Amino acid sequence: MKHATTLAALAIVTLISLPDAQAATLDNGLYILNNHPDGNQRPPSYGLRLDGLIGNPNSDTFTFDFDHPDSGMSMIISDAVDAGNKNIRIFGFTYGGLDRNSNGNFGTDTDNNGYSDSVQGTWFVDFTYLNVPLVPGDDDRHFTTSTGVSIPNGGPGIGVAKGTISLVDVDAVGNSITYEGGTITANNNINDDSNVIDLIGQSNSAGLIFRLGDENNDAGHRGFNGISGWGWVNHDARDPGAKGGSLSSHIYASDFLFTATPSEVPPIPLPAAAWAGLAGFSLLAARKKFANPKPESN
Questions:
Q1: Distance, CA of 36 to CA of 258 (rounded, Å)
Q2: Residue 19 scores a pLDDT above 70
Q3: Is 84 exposed, middle or buried (0-12, 13-18, 19+ CB in 10 A)?
Q4: CA 165 distance to own-chain centroid
Q5: Mean pLDDT for all residues in the chain
């Protein structure tokens, strides 16, 4: 059973949006996120990968297709408290699940969408990087362990590069996903966070946690000539055996890798607080949508 592709709440946010769609600059405003063409587990293509999200972190590949008809991922850039720095919020709905490239008990893929029939659904992602400076000598933005607030390798952060992912709808029989000892239930109650999985930023060996832009000298990231976002995350895996099931260890691979396009709608200036309110409204309205679905015909 497939769902309507356009979520009213995200449409509202999109219509109040901003800069020139052709510019490769990182102006304040709303951006539409898509899959990056160079994800190494494609197909299916994806914009986020969280291996071991449910089940075995050593064999289970979980990817999230930002271009799926049931997906709608966005990013808001706004001014940070520190002059010249920016806040970057990544949020929206994305379809995904157990990827066909997994080494574990994949099962079947009858609709040939790249995901296990019994381990797929629609998820809500909300992740924020606060106080992100420019890359020295370039117009990209980067969040690192030396930008003023540290997120050390293998350790939880201080609340400046963190977010959540939650299952809001299951494209299978029932309302939960169970896989290799891990279970997560779809939850449409805005006041109940029992199925929310925490995410935090994770640095690589060079101290980079997240970068947004088109690399030094506008050369593009991994073959994409435009704006890309890439960075590593840790997640609270739903499996007691998944490296303790905590945020303190990185499961390879778990990372963002997406492209970003500025909205084509003429800019309407809004303060950062207004953008944050609209993003929160999108979750509330869409959860109400999934909680009260309209009957669908075959």
A1: 4
A2: no
A3: exposed
A4: 8
A5: 75
